[in-house]
Design a protein that fits this description.
Blueprint lengths: L2 H10 L4 H12 L3 H13 L5 H26 L3 H7 L2 H12 L1 H8 L6 H10 L4 H34 L3 H26 L7 H5 L1
């Protein structure tokens, strides 16, 4: 994905709030982190208002997460698919996840690659949608709040110092925003008590 294209699209729609929110929702299916970091960068350069950007990003993230849950719930109506996954190991994993659902859902916000399977499984196994939505909303607010704060505090002076080369700095920050979660995600997961499924649970 061309990261500069994300920035250009969000900036172009800055004066059209509803279109901006719609674009953020669509782009979030490509990369939620790119939309979050890109929006924060535009705010840091006064190209996008903070309240609108923060609202648009969170609506996009929550809508995307809800859509994945819905896709999983829809898939659960397929009898053939249900029979395919009706194995003891799958349902052992379901019970293990269900007992730790809150921390697991919260951890996925900080761990790229875990959201798609986790949210689809949440819908497929019928985990409570109200609880799912509450935890994912909290995770979204924490993550976007962290990203916006870091970029507004540290990113703005960095970009301003680059002068005419600030576009290159924006691309670097955007790329870092895509890579950093891969490193901090496992740390966050350990801090909130989420670890790998024990071997005993896998084999019993």
């Amino acid at each position: 994905m061309d990261v500069t294209w994300v920035l250009e699209t969000l900036q172009m729609l800055a004066s059209r709030p509803l279109f901006l929110i719609g674009a953020a929702i669509v782009l979030s299916f490509l990369s939620e982190d790119a939309v979050t970091v890109g929006s924060a960068l535009l705010v840091s350069q006064d190209l996008l208002g903070l309240p609108l950007a923060f609202l648009a990003v969170n609506i996009a993230i929550i809508a995307g997460d809800g859509a994945l849950y819905g896709a999983g719930a829809l898939a659960a109506r397929n009898r053939k698919l249900r029979r395919m996954v009706a194995t003891r190991r799958v349902y052992q994993a379901k019970r293990w996840v269900e007992q730790r659902l809150g921390p697991i859902l919260l951890a996925t916000r900080f761990m790229p690659g875990t959201r798609l399977p986790t949210y689809l499984a949440s819908g497929f196994f019928g985990f409570p949608f109200s609880f799912f939505l509450m935890v994912l909303t909290l995770g979204s607010l924490l993550w976007t709040g962290f990203v916006f704060s870091v970029i507004l505090i540290a990113g703005k002076p960095f970009l301003d110092a680059l002068g005419p080369w600030k576009w290159l700095g924006a691309v670097i920050i955007l790329l870092c925003g895509l890579l950093v979660p891969h490193f901090i995600g496992p740390i966050v997961a350990r801090l909130i008590g989420v670890g790998p499924m024990p071997e005993d649970d896998k084999n019993t």
